[in-house]
Amino acid sequence: MTMPIPTANAAFLIDEAGIITAWNKACEQLLGFPAREAIGQSFGSLLVGIDPGDMTVRWRGLAEDHGHTNRVVLRHADGTTVKADLAILPQAGLDGVDRAWVAAIDNVHNDAMPDAVLVGRMPLATIIDVLPGTFYALNREGRFLLWNRNHERMTEYSSEEMGATNALELFDLPTRPLIAESIRRVFEEGEEVTIEADVVARSGRETPMLLCGARVDCDGGRYLFGMGMDITARREQERALRLRERALHAASNGIVITGIDGGNCPIEYVNPAFERITGYSAIEVVGRDSRFMAAPGMDNNERQQVREAIAARRPVNVVFRNMRKDGELFWNDLSITPVQGEHGETTHFIGVIMDVTATKQRTAHLEHEVNHDPLTGLANRNLMWDRLEQALHLSQRQKSMVGIVLIDLNNFKNINDSFGHEAGDVVLKVVARRLQASVREIDTVARLSGDEFVLVLVNQPTLRFTLRMIERLRQSLTQPVSFMHKEIAVGASLGVAVYPHDGITAPDLVRSADVAMYHAKATGRNEIYFFSNDMKSSSEARARLDSGMSHAIERSELFMLYQPCIDAKSGRVSCFEALLRWRHPEHGVLLPSSFLSEAEENGRIVEFGAWVLDQACAFLHDLKQLGITDVPVTVNVTAREYGQQDFVSGIASRLKAWELAPDLLQIELREETVIRNPGQVRDLAAQLRQLGLTLSIDEFGQGMTDLGFLRELSVGQLKLAKEAVRAIADGPEGEGGTMARTLIDIGHNLRMPVIGEAVETRAQLDFLTAHGCEVLQGLLLSEPVLPEAARNLVRDRMPA
């Protein structure tokens, strides 16, 4: 097929019936039909694929779309076809009625025409409406000459309004100078301009647009052709990115982003907090491997965890030490998280650095306070037991001996009475220093209570070696202590037990050393006694004590006292503590400290404990009869008691028998019991909680209970260790109150009420009240009283 040669201005005339009435030369050249053959023919005969009977409908449809171009297929005289654009324009007569139509043929092509030619011949008006953004053409004055539908939708102007609109009117006043200058540069300097500006629609809606324009010369005139893209989504993304960047910069924790380069992780970004924490600027660290701050030889296990996590592309959290730029070590709580790319592969790591140096130091300080005696700085009872257990485990492996030395100062009460408690404190501090100076660093010196000390001497090669060490120690204790220009004589009785000869377990060894110290003290001189089996077998006093306990209940020698606990705010009795007493036929009234340890050892504590629970329930029932149902009673129990299989079920039976609410009875455990039997205590706490009873912890602060464990037990209240309260001797500002204040803060952080017991002075009362202790107990407030007196206290509801 040969493509016909297009002729300019090919047009013909059609009447109302669609009959061709005029045919110009260009039509003859284009379609091959001379005028004589074309005139008089139906217009539809020129259209391919149209039934002659439908010609009128077809041409009418084209005519009604007057002013617009229609794509048609025309018939050529040689039998071929011609594709062209056809525009039909009406021609009105003198009466204004359309009598004829001019059909103009343009953009002639056929199937053999190349795509580039076809596309090149497409009229601009047919293209601009399919563009994704706005399209417009301006003259030098900024008037719109051409635009697409997207431009109308975005500006909300109609076609008529847009033709009368100047481009500057689409922008707010501050932006118009920028737009005007851009238009000037396009026309006068021929620049291609790209700017971002907010286009203001007719309704006032603002749309951020990326606008570009260039000059086009056409038929001697110059015009600005431009396009615009809505960048609202991009602006939101940029805003979100800026927000994230500001968040990274404002974060108080250090943030570091690293790439992955083989086995290395080069730093790509650090925030200002990282610079502040480490001392390194971003310029100094970007590009370096992230491990350059590692402290050599420290925390190798944690660093291995990091290496393994990075190799496995998984998150990790460790705490280790790093070095600041100035060489100072700091504790770094580091969390590392992998970042995945578009295809799921790990491309980066984000590390969050938290400087926990201060927290570590506070924790270490707190641990020292919890594990050490506040007066002397020596290990306390809890730490001593821990060190002794460690020493025994080590001795078992090394087949060596461990020495336990119990030391009791002679006539210490006389020192306090004669020279005052300040002098007594000075003596205790001096003795502590002397004891530490007499042993090795691997040994432990502890203060048990009052004037009692204990030494744990590890890895003793021979008894002779142990004896020489203890003799040096005894000699140092015989030296007087200077106080206020006075010499205070000091002496001590020492009891010694050696593992494995005198006991296999830690309690056995301490008990043996205690027996030996008792015999040394009985001499009245500064003696050293090594434990022997003869001491134990000849303990007649202990045997008589055991014999007397076996008949104490049946002879009605036991009786109960109740010491009130006073609400610090209201001054009312908030609860009672049940206290056991033994009216011994020979020795008079004995306190629990005189016989309960022996009862615990021989098992009679179970019988005594059951009797105490019965008495406490009877007392609570009496209170209930008086109409008092909000004052509970606390009963202290030992490990041997709650270790009985029927302990909790026995409590349940008693509550039911006495018709008591569970929350009226509180079970109290000493902190050292909790530490030694955590699994058993956990089970007990769960059973008591199920029954509805409250668990109380006595002597809190004497040991070092895991605080999370206390929370797990749902402890109802904490009783401060008596030592902590007694240390409050110098008023609220004295350093003696540090331990009490610390323990109260710990209790409140655990959201547990704190009871200050053993309150004996006004200074102690004021200190504990000022630091938020909720409940107070002690001789200053009330001595333990008989049941009838206790009932009167709450019956009258008078402040104690």
TrEMBL record:
- According to the entry, every stretch annotated as the PAC domain falls at 316-368
Q: Name one GO molecular function term.
A: catalytic activity
> Where would I find the GGDEF domain in this sequence?
400-533
Name any Gene Ontology BP term.
regulation of DNA-templated transcription
Q: Which CDD domains match?
A: EAL, GGDEF, PAS
| Ranges for domain EAL | 542-798
Instruction: Check the UniProt entry and state the signal peptide residues, or none.
Output: none
Please name the InterPro entries in this protein's record: Biofilm_reg_signaling, EAL_dom, EAL_sf, GGDEF_dom, Nucleotide_cyclase, PAC, PAS, PAS-assoc_C
Which Gene3D superfamilies has this protein been placed in? Answer: 3.30.70.270, EAL domain, PAS domain
Domain PAS: start-end pairs: 1-54, 120-190, 240-313
Fetch the SUPFAM superfamilies from UniProt: EAL domain-like, Nucleotide cyclase, PYP-like sensor domain (PAS domain)
Name of the protein in question: EAL domain-containing protein
Q: Which organism is it from?
A: Massilia litorea
